Amino acid sequence: MTMLLPTALVTGGSRGIGKAIAHTLAREGFQVYLTYVSKPQEAEAVAEAIVSAGGAARAFCLNVGDAAAVADFFANEIKGKVELSVLVNNAGITKDGFLVRMKDDDFDAVIGINLRGAFVTLREAAKIMTKQRHGSIINISSVVGQMGNACQVNYSAAKAGLLGITKSAAKELAGRNITVNAVAPGFIETDMTAGLPDDVKKSYEEAIPMKRMGTASDVAEAVAFLASEKARYITGQVLAVNGGMYC
User: Catalytic annotation on 155?
Assistant: First the structure.
């Protein structure tokens, strides 16, 4: 009988937090499948770097907002071909704006990718993991899903919804030895935050008890823990990685 390679699927794994998660899970011995929507060069560069370091990785173009495409991806690339040990729902977008000016399309787009996309991906993964009778699912939420944030009604709603999905799915899947948890990062140093004005960054840091932003590696290490055997009796939980910002 052919042994399938234990694999971690990381959506939105080409940059920022997703990239750090991909590298960290590869270091922990997983083959990493990472997805992207745009900028294939960046995604391929992540996969190539993992391979160069002695790991195994592949990059795939996948829009998690397209349920049919997600189902096809799992049918063609996952089912029967690898052992899906870990799913990290990290793919997400932002379309910030004042509540009274926010367009319906901007609200729907963020919910469609960040919440519905995570649900669709989790559903397909659960079908496979249920038959395997093991697996770990980690949803990347956010501190703003716990405390809200001005001009991010859509993003906050999606990230708060992920917490509900996490707790509900954990109850459903626990009997099949599948854990479902969430990681809620605070303000993290990424390409997105790097473009913020210095005074905005300083205001964020002043709001954090540890007085600094976190790093993508901080988040990735939390994900790696939840994906490991060390966390096999932890499910339905939200691990906040925020320097004490919301505690």
Answer: yes
